[in-house]
Amino acid sequence: MSSGQEPVFSEYETDTSQTSKLLRKFKETPFVPIGMAGFAVVVGYGLYRLKHRGDMKMSLHLIHMRVAAQGFVVGAITCGVLYSMFREYVVKPKE
């Protein structure tokens, strides 16, 4: 890239730290990081419960954890869409 050209993604090149990117994403769409955190919690709980699953088969335990993690993420996405619709159509002043 020559010095006379302006960067194509200048707004993204200024925010290079992961923390600033995460904070910007959280402000734009707050339910995305909540969904990611919920997914991590479900996976952590599943790994903890893996040790104490009793006589349940491993495949059945993994299927249950996958369904729980996917359900949490889909729920977070649904809440995010409803929140966006609420902001766009209810809170936004009429023009």
Automatic annotation (TrEMBL):
Subcellular location, record wording = Mitochondrion membrane
Q: Could you tell me which residue ranges the HIG1 domain spans? A: 1-95
The signal peptide, as residue positions, is none
Has keyword Repressor?
no
* Superkingdom assignment: Eukaryota
Identify this protein by name. HIG1 domain-containing protein
State whether keyword rRNA processing applies: no
